[in-house]
Design goal:
By secondary structure, the chain is α+β, with helices and mostly antiparallel strands. About 25% of the residues lie in helices and about 40% in strands.
């Protein structure tokens, strides 16, 4: 397990994203019923955290998802979008909703230092 201690009732997306950056991971998976996992060094590793509750995954998803993607998720059960994480790169996100439960798959895409990203909703 990777050493990020997070209680499931107090999960914040920034802790998860920072773990990805600090560990040099490429991917983050957050699925209700399981602890969050990152892909680093060619293997999946669980973060030191409790299993996520459906409320946790829903709350984290809402922290990073624009209104357009929320509507798409409600209509289609799936949304794909991206966002910049400060100077730490860009994340592509896939969100799926099945039986009212949200799962997230994030992939970190590095960016050259001369790029400047702006948010467009």
């Amino acid at each position: 397990m990777i050493g990020v201690i997070v209680m499931a009732t107090q999960v914040f997306i920034d802790y998860m994203l920072q773990a990805v950056v600090e560990q040099g991971a490429s991917d983050l998976r957050m699925i209700a019923g399981k602890p969050p996992r990152i892909f680093v060094g060619g293997e999946w590793k669980e973060l030191q955290a409790e299993a996520l509750e459906p409320e946790d995954t829903d709350s984290m998803m809402r922290q990073i998802t624009a209104e357009r993607a929320l509507r798409e998720l409600d209509d289609e059960g799936l949304a794909v979008f991206g966002f910049a994480y400060g100077d730490n790169g860009f994340f592509m996100v896939g969100v799926a909703k099945k039986d009212g439960v949200v799962s997230l798959a994030l992939s970190r895409i590095g960016m050259p230092p001369h790029w400047t990203l702006t948010r467009a909703d």
